[in-house]
Automatic annotation (TrEMBL):
Residues 31-263 form the MmgE/PrpD N-terminal domain. It comes from Streptomyces xanthochromogenes. This is 2-methylcitrate dehydratase. It comes from the Bacteria. PANTHER family: 2-METHYLCITRATE DEHYDRATASE (PTHR16943:SF8), 2-METHYLCITRATE DEHYDRATASE-RELATED (PTHR16943). Pfam families: MmgE_PrpD_C (PF19305), MmgE_PrpD_N (PF03972).
Amino acid sequence: MIDHQVRVHPSADRLPRREQLAWRLAAVATATQEAAELDPEAAAMAVNRVIDNAAVATASLRRRPVAVARTQAAPHRATPGASVFGTGGRVSPEWAAWANGTAVRELDFHDTYLAADYSHPGDNIPPLLAVAQHTGRSGADVLRGIVAAYEIHVALVKGICLHAHRIDHVAHLGAATACGIGAMLRLPVETVYQAVGQVVHTTTATRQSRKGEISSWKAFAPAFAAKAAIEAVDRAMRGEGAPSPIYEGEDGFLARMLDGPGAAYTVTLPEPGEARRAILDTYTKEHSAEYQAQAVIDLARRLREKAGPLDRVRSVVLHTSHHTHHVIGSGANDPQKYDPAVGRETLDHSVPYIFAVALEDGVWHHERSYARERARRPSTVELWQKISTVEDPDWTRRYHDPDPARRAFGGRAVITRDDGTVLEGELAVADAHPSGARPFDRDGYTGKFRTLTEGIVTPAGQDAFLGTASRLAELDTEALTGLFPEADTEAVAAYDAKLPKGLF
């Protein structure tokens, strides 16, 4: 691996393109090996994530934000176009990426990578599939693009923290998607470089989308970045340029959005010919909630029988990392995280709520655990209000450990009863994490797909999709349609018809 030092340069420096981060990202992406030369484990994991995305997208077909995105996309018909989950038609690739990206993100249930910043690198897959279908690419091309996008995404998340400046993490997603498309289409470095500059410039937004009363925009945000990335690649292919240097310029991303004129970062990228294995550092979710809550849910399930009558609990304190405390814990200082009247988007970013429900129920369900009546259950509300988080420096250190095998995203729970007795327990990583008690393998992804699509996709349809996905590297363009499970399109259309009309 090569450590690239990235800092702000005044315009007078005339920083050469080949020394700019955007160029280095583009060069790594476009040098990605052919599918047959990819690391076998990385290629297998890419297939797992295609399965994972389809599972969570299909489960969300009748959720309002997904239906809105789908109906926005529907009028933009194109030939050959790209498929949309839950429909039989095809639309232009940027709109397919919009609809499918929203479906994948809606349940907060697909893959994650946490380091200096946050990310959901599976958000790169919908735009890659859409462009592949529209441009006549093969499954091997898609596979190459996915591995490249993950490589770039993970490198950026490791090296450049956005959260410290309250910038939303989709700013890294747009760059990764542009690079993945460039790798898939075998575009010149210059073209990808310009696309990266354009999309970083246009997709930088604040983290208010994940603060206070969180709206459905949380689901739309990555799809917006994906759509912008496709449009940026299209413009760059037509010869249009971008603000440059986008990262290092004196009025650029680092200087004005992040650490200021003295900003300096280290982004580590693979050497030419080095295996692209960053996708193996990422992990999916067993539970439909913010990733830092995954281990908390598993911990609550373990403590449930030992906790005794929950109406006798005086307080629960979760000792955890800075990120968990300040993003989904009481350290966020968001009263909405304790409000039974808020929506799902806010509840899945409230670890006090999540711990209360998991402690009461011993299970977590992507719909029932967020139901309005569930959030307003008197016993839940009473317990919920007694739960708080505190930052523990040791958990913060473990969260940022450079060794993925030692990195921890959980915490320690201290439950104090009315009689003064105390129950404690801790869990470093979720059971499904690669270092957890039950790491997800292909069977885990397959099981998650079958569970989430039950009643939506027939058993025969499930088998057909899984068989197609497992042969990703062998698929021709036509066969890529099989990566969209066959659902009841009439039922989906009937749901869509009830929505208010917009402009399109």
